[in-house]
Amino acid sequence: MAAPDGSVDLRSDTATRPTAAMYAAMVDAPVGDAAAGEDPTVRRLEELAAERVGKEAAIYVPSGTMANQIALRVLARPGTEVVCGARAHIYRYENAASAVNAGVQIRPLPDPGGAFAPDVLAGALHSADYHQPRVSLVAIENTHMPSGGWPQPPAWVEAVGSVAAEAGVAVHCDGARIFNAAVALGIPAPDLCAPVTTVMFCASKGLGAPVGSLLCGPADVIGAAFEHRQRLGGTMRQAGVIAAAALVGLETGVERLADDHRRAAGLAEALAEIFPGSVDPATVHTNIVCAATAALPADLLLRLVAVGIRAGTIDGATTRFVTHCDVDDEDLRRVVAALRDIGVART
User: Fold this and answer.
1) Domain 31-252 belongs to what architecture?
2) Is 93 a residue whose pLDDT tops 90?
3) Residue 181 CA: distances (Å) to CA of 38, 157, 186, 191, 288
4) What digits encode the pLDDT tens for the residues 110-161?
5) Over 70: is that where the pLDDT of 347 sits?
6) How far, CA to CA in Å, does 195 sit from each of 105, 112, 172, 178, 189?
7) Which residues, including other chains, have CB under 8 Å from residue 77's CB and lie 6 or more apart?
8) What are the residue ranges of CATH 3.90.1150.10 in the chain?
9) Which CATH code of 3.40.50.1360, 3.40.50.1000, 3.90.1150.10, 3.40.190.80 fits the domain covering 8-16+256-346?
10) Phi and psi angles of residue 26, each rounded to the nearest 5 degrees, phi first
């Protein structure tokens, strides 16, 4: 389903437009003062969100970055380190917010394939024994966006949780696309989130809502998160108007993520065929296709824009295509046809 201007937007799954059901729910949503805990739609969303990832409580915030930053403020301690993967969102894509908001230093670990090794994590957690900064939090990302939306397997999540627990350190999961991971792996989201202390997910990505993310975790942690949300300017008033759309996405948008995964796999296969070496289709399991820019025509993005197709980059070496609920099979056929035309012209 192309955008109103006829374009197909593959830059991100944040590009989705509210569905008719979302608009209807927004119009009819009962609202109250969310800052005082009096908005019934927000309360319902927070309760459902916590239930869907197997946690005690949840808090609704404007963005995934804010949810991550609140988790760092609540779980980490100023003057300590937060360990994460070298390509983690909290490290590379949040504008160094952790230093400003939480007073912590990020310690990146090598994350080939999207996952750092548990034994390397164990070494980092004991680095204070060697006059290095103490680690107060471990952060993981699931799915791992720069690795092509790689769904972190439960065995790895459990191993990380076990190593962290042994050291007495909490684990936060940047689960912006946690339901993509659960669908791709074929396991319930609560099982995937059980080893972590907190998890955040975005209603505004694969679930298709226009705005908002949820931070979920133990009741005491989420209780503290309300204070930090206010400090960061994230307190909202009659937020039920937007929470209603997030509810629709959470209630109806999870199972359909498999369609996004199927379309991304098809796009990866086409890219690999047309531009050899750009993508390994075997690595694409969810809705993100990360292609090696060096294997693509230098003007690919401009040529796609010329025919009404948008894609983007995440760094100097990676071009990204993201499928979502506003990209259907006809859109995908159009994209593949455009890629073939560009590939033919290249030769």
Assistant:
1) 3-Layer(aba) Sandwich (3.40)
2) yes
3) 33, 12, 8, 11, 12
4) 999 889 999 999 999 998 777 789 999 999 999 999 999 999 999 999 999 9
5) no
6) 24, 22, 10, 14, 11
7) 104, 136
8) 8-16+256-346
9) 3.90.1150.10
10) -65, -40
State how beta strands 288-292 and 309-310 pair: unpaired
Length of the chain equals 347
286-298 tens-digit pLDDT: 999 999 999 999 9
Q: How many CB atoms lie within 10 A of CB 210?
A: 17
**Beta-bridge partner residues of 82:** 106, 137
Query: How is residue 249 written in tokens?
Result: 């996405």
- Which regions of the chain does DSSP assign to beta strands (E)? 8-9, 57-61, 81-85, 105-109, 135-141, 170-174, 198-202, 213-217, 288-292, 309-310, 312-315, 318-322
CA angle (139, 210, 11) in 5-degree steps: 70
Take residue 195 and report the two structure tokens written for it: 């080893």
Q: Which position has the higher pLDDT, 131 or 88?
A: 88
- pTM value? 0.95
d(CA 186, CA 192) in angstroms, rounded, equals 10
